[in-house]
């Protein structure tokens, strides 16, 4: 716990500082007075620059007796008293780590209260280079976290911004979670952005979380948004993994729109739409207003049904596709029958046509693969006809085979999820439903089996239903409804959406706001469904629930032949559990 000080003083004084001191050396009395003012401050003998000041003082003819008297009288021994108290606490039985944390936290509080950015900046304006103590300071997480907090409060402080760059250079950029801190310097922001993109690429089981984290950082300001989107746009052109970057770019656009940020001009500038002014103007008009209109839809339809259509990426805009899906699949939306085929054509075109430069030809020439366009249009038309009619579960059963055939097309799957979400989120839906599993939710099971990429959307919908208030239903009916939703989650789990489902149920256990019988029901259903081998991540998430006596205590038998005991024994034998 001893505090060590460097007796060599801060090195590397600037020429200006040296020149100013030389002027003072020509006036010994002024130099002595300047030194005495410093010696009068409490505990100045502990300052790093004490030896430099003593040398100046004596060279100017200062009295040794006077300086000894001043330094001793103003010696308060604050640091030594802190060390002494720390040693007493350790002798009293407090752990060394706890004492160290107490001292460090108190120092952090004192620094946060008394930090002066102007004085901090003098470290560089006067010293000319990075002090050794600052380099040592960033090696410890406690002091790095202090720098992060200070940098948020004082974004214009030169010393803090430089220290943030030092931290980034040292490889700790993943710790810089404050966007405002990272956005101050392009080098720091670039490293943090790279870390965020790598996390998105390397975490397939938590894609949503990685996207949200990256999008939040990119959308911090206009400069961060433009810089990041240009960079991602360049990476999306790469043959290997470019589609992942294109998706990330689209998810960032979607996040920006959800937060009421108008990024349409930037998006249109990056997608090369200026070459096609008619299509660009029509699309920009709808995206800016966030609503479709027949006139602009007609312009786009005319452009894309012509012999030389614009690039398909122009209408593969997340916002535009959301508007088209809403118009065709959300209940209650009325479209003029004259224009409805144009809406369907544009949605089908954007989701099925393959547009790419032709090999061994000039880059300006493109090949358009429209093999699936006609069948996609027909599937959307049939699904729209079913979803656009207000019908109950009984009437829907007659249309199931047709709907299941249409669901094979991903764009129809997206639309059907939107339609079902609109229907089942109605407060009276479960009140009027008498089926053990409503037909609409059975359709979701089919979508989950056909399109793994849509499973996350389905899970979010099921979570909303599970957490929704159904106060009009009796308690027992509410429990049965939630069990039915848990059955849908178990179905998702069997289809491959394992980790997200288990994470949500684990969260329900941790918050303790879910009836324990529902958790028990979920665990029972999963145990009856699964078999080994299991992944380490699965065991880590599921085993604590199975071992919980409150959940599975009544499910265990006297021996080890019941599913609970068999699962626990297998995991203990094949995995190192904590």
From TrEMBL:
UniProtKB keywords: Elongation factor, Nucleus, Protein biosynthesis, Repressor, Transcription, Transcription regulation
Keyword field contains 4Fe-4S: no
Location relative to the cell: Nucleus
Main localization category: nucleus
Ranges for region Disordered: 1-28
GO biological process: negative regulation of transcription elongation by RNA polymerase II
Nucleus in keyword set: yes
GO molecular-function terms, A-Z: RNA binding; translation elongation factor activity
GO cellular component entries: NELF complex
Pfam families xrefs: TH1
UniProt record similarity statement: Belongs to the NELF-D family.
Protein name: Negative elongation factor D
Gene responsible for this protein: LOC111594072
């Amino acid at each position: 716990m001893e505090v060590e000080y460097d007796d060599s003083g801060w090195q590397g004084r600037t020429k200006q500082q040296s020149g100013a001191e030389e002027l003072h050396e020509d006036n010994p009395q002024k130099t002595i007075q300047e030194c005495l003012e410093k010696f009068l401050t409490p505990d100045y003998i502990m300052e790093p620059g004490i030896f430099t000041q003593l040398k100046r003082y004596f060279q100017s003819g200062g009295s040794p007796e006077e300086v000894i008297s001043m330094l001793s009288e103003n010696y308060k021994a604050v640091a030594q008293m802190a060390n002494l108290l720390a040693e007493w606490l350790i002798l009293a039985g407090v752990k060394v780590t706890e004492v160290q944390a107490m001292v460090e936290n108190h120092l952090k509080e004192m620094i946060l209260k008394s930090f002066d950015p102007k004085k901090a900046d003098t470290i560089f304006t006067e010293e000319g280079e990075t002090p050794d103590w600052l380099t040592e300071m960033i090696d410890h997480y406690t002091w790095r976290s202090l720098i992060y907090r200070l940098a948020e409060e004082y974004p214009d402080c030169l010393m803090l911004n430089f220290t943030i760059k030092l931290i980034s250079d040292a490889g700790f950029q993943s710790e810089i979670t404050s966007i405002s801190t990272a956005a101050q310097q392009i080098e720091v922001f670039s490293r943090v952005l790279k870390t965020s993109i790598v996390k998105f690429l390397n975490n397939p089981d938590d894609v949503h979380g990685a996207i949200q984290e990256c999008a939040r950082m990119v959308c911090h300001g206009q400069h961060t948004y433009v810089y990041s989107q240009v960079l991602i746009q360049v990476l999306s052109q790469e043959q290997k993994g470019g589609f992942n970057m294109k998706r990330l770019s689209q998810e960032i656009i979607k996040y920006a729109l959800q937060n009421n940020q108008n990024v349409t001009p930037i998006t249109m500038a990056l997608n090369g739409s200026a070459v096609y002014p008619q299509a660009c103007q029509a699309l920009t008009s709808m995206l800016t207003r966030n609503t479709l209109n027949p006139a602009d839809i007609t312009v786009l339809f005319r452009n894309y049904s012509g012999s030389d259509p614009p690039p398909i990426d122009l209408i593969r805009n997340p916002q535009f596709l959301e508007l088209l899906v809403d118009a065709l699949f959300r209940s209650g939306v009325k479209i003029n029958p004259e224009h409805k085929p144009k809406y369907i054509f544009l949605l089908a075109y954007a989701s099925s046509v393959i547009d790419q430069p032709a090999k061994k030809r000039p880059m300006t020439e493109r090949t358009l693969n429209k093999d699936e366009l006609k069948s996609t249009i027909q599937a959307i038309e049939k699904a729209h006809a079913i979803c656009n009619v207000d019908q109950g579960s009984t009437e829907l059963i007659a249309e199931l085979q047709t709907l299941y055939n249409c669901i094979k097309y991903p764009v129809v799957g997206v639309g059907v999820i939107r339609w079902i979400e609109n229907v089942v989120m109605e407060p009276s839906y479960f009140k009027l439903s008498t089926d053990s599993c409503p037909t609409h939710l059975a359709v979701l099971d089919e979508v989950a089996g056909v399109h793994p990429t849509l499973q996350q959307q389905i899970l979010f919908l099921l979570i909303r239903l599970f957490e929704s208030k159904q106060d009009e239903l009796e308690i027992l009916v509410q429990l049965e409804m939630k069990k039915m939703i848990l059955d849908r989650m178990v179905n998702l789990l069997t289809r491959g959406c394992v980790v997200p489902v288990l994470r949500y149920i684990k969260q329900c256990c941790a918050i303790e706001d879910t009836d324990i019988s529902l958790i028990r029901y979920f665990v029972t259903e999963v145990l009856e469904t699964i078999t080994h081998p299991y992944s380490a991540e699965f065991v880590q998430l599921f085993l604590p629930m199975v071992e919980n006596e409150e959940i599975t205590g009544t499910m265990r038998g006297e021996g080890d032949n019941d599913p609970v005991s068999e699962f626990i024994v297998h995991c203990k034998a094949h995995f190192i559990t904590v």
